[in-house]
Amino acid sequence: MISWFRPSFLTYWIVSAIIDSTAGFVAASANPIQFEDKIRENHRQDPKFSFLNSADPYHAYYRHRIERVRNGEVPVNEKEVTPPLKPATSAVADAIPKEPPPLQFVLEVPHKNALDL
């Protein structure tokens, strides 16, 4: 069974995706307050939707996303564009270490055996 332990780093991405899509649907609905109440009622026991509660730490982000969708800053139900990652070939090329610089302070010490000491 999947645990929805909220402080975990990985669940932040899942919760933020749910918040983004829910905020888009709520902002685009004809009656957002009633639609939000309906979602809250249907998902009362689901911890993924606890951000609908005003005491939840993610509630401020949820309200922020609704306002951004209403103002037209973010299209409805579309995530913000993140910069693409480097292609895999350049990542492999970056992973190969470069040749280290030559040693500057190397002293050639004559070899001594145990009898010489």
Question: What's this entry about, in short?
Answer:
This protein is mainly alpha-helical and 117 residues long. The chain has helices at 9-28, 32-42, 59-70, 88-95.
Write up what this structure looks like.
The protein has 117 residues and is mostly helical. It has a domain at 9-70: Arc Repressor Mutant, subunit A (Orthogonal Bundle), CATH 1.10.10.790. 44% of the residues lie in helices and 0% in strands. It has 4 helices and no strands. The protein has helices spanning 9-28, 32-42, 59-70, 88-95. Helix 1 (9-28) packs across helix 3. The longest helix is centred in the first third of the chain and has 20 residues, at 9-28. The termini are far apart.
How is the topology of this model organized?
Blueprint lengths: L8 H20 L3 H11 L16 H12 L17 H8 L22
Helix pairs in contact: 1-2, 1-3
From N to C, what is the helix and strand string? HHHH
Specify the number of helices.
4
- Uncertain residue ranges: 80-85
Basic shape: rod-shaped
Question: Helix/strand/pairing class, anyone?
Answer: mainly alpha
CA radius of gyration? 28 Å
Described by its quaternary structure, the protein is single chain
Care to count the β-strands?
Answer: 0
The biggest beta sheet is recorded as: none
CATH level-4 homologous superfamily of the domain at 9-70: Surp module
Beta-strand fraction estimate: under 5%
CATH class of the domain at 9-70: Mainly Alpha
Helix content: 40-55%
